[in-house]
Specification:
alpha+beta; two-stranded antiparallel ribbon; two-stranded antiparallel sheet; 4 strands
């Protein structure tokens, strides 16, 4: 069931786009405070960094994915869309999951 609120679409029991944006902004602030900003400034697959990269949810928000280090990876727009449409290569998926496994200990140290 869809609801419109402040021009944003909300699905029952799911966070609104505004809520997700606010949580993502909070996550980025947290990353900066930990000194990990550089880890999130380029695509973890190809290294693209021409403009801001997307904070891609591995488990989609609509399926209960949370805004947390274990579910976010920085992807360029192309890899983000490929990942969301499940047309990204197996090799790229491995790189994404490995990147997350490598970043998690950095959060635990801080």
């Amino acid at each position: 069931k869809l609801k419109k609120s402040m021009g944003l679409i909300k699905v029952d029991n799911q966070p609104s786009q505004k809520e997700v944006f606010e949580k993502t902004e909070s996550f980025i602030k947290f990353v900066n405070e930990l000194g990990l900003k550089g880890e999130y400034e380029k695509c973890c697959v190809c290294g693209w960094n021409k403009t801001a990269v997307d904070m891609a949810h591995i488990l989609p928000k609509r399926k209960g994915g949370k805004v947390e280090a274990s579910n976010i990876s920085p992807l360029c727009p192309n890899h983000h869309r490929e990942f969301d449409k499940n047309v990204i290569s197996h090799e790229a998926k491995v790189v994404i999951y490995q990147w997350i496994l490598n970043i998690l200990p950095k959060f635990e140290k801080n």
